[in-house]
What does this fold into?
Amino acid sequence: MASPYNIASARAQPNIAIVKYWGNRDHRLRLPANSSLSMNLADLHTTTTVRWSADLLDDRLTINGKSPTVAALQRVQTHLDSLRRRLGTKRRAQVDSRNNFPMGAGIASSASAFAALTMAAVAALRQDMSQRELTTLARLGSGSAARSIPGGFVEWRAADSHEESYAETIAPADHWQLDDVIAIVSDQHKRVGSTSGHASASSSLFQPARVETAMQRLREAKQAIAQRDFERLARVAEADSNLMHAVMMTSSPPLFYWQPLTLAVMAAVRNWREAEGLRVCYTLDAGPNVHCICAADDALAVAARMADLSPEIAILRSPVGGGAVVLPN
Ligand code: PMV
It folds into this structure.
């Protein structure tokens, strides 16, 4: 007799993009306007348990042990519908998800959340699936989640079809000892999430220019990573982050994620690099916190300087991490 339920847990890490994803060519399938490149963050993670059950009448979700907002539940249900179609099940799911880092503040909790959810949901039904296909399924929940399935430094390809827009490792986590020292200037949940940001990206006059030149920056970033050339990585990461925020600020409605402390950290980072010779650069996602990517040897010096900047800054630190994994029962 078939078991009344199937259960599995998976763990995934958020990623920080060096070449950003902003805007879609297809919103429903989350096919991105441009290819992007990121690194996973080893010490931050989301752990998710999925239990598919014939007895449940509706999908259920807890996040950090609490009931989610209606919007969060709907987004997860929509993703579970996509998974049900692919996995050939009508069962509803109980989903329990926990993060060890603050959500919705420019540390991509949706990336690790949808990567862990997808991985656990597939594993719970004991179905074999290639990593490539897992990345395309995770992408349907949150675009950047595709990049949290493979490990290390990851490229996600822009393409016109669901199958072709997948993510893959371009270098393993131990290829280059980099750390992300994150300046948390606010842990408030962001007011405008990335889904509506992607939808308004094309209203900026700058978005076509950003998208047209993204492949150039991607090639540059890949070479910098291959050669472990920090100066080159710093130039391209900061330029790409500035470009994405220029698009955000000039979209309709305009999106301003920066706060005064955000700018203070960005200016300080340039100074630490240019005047003091620390191997550090900044990049920001859709939030006010500043990700300072640095050579692991310089991470303590960066964190100490960051702490001196303001008592209001909280600091998170993580080396480059591996991919999403199914946890033993
Ligand atoms: O996956 P989403 O919809 O949360 O979009 C992420 C967008 C950025 O974090 C701003 C950039 C990126 O490439 O991660």
About this structure: Residues 230-249 form the longest helix (20 residues). The mean pLDDT is 95.
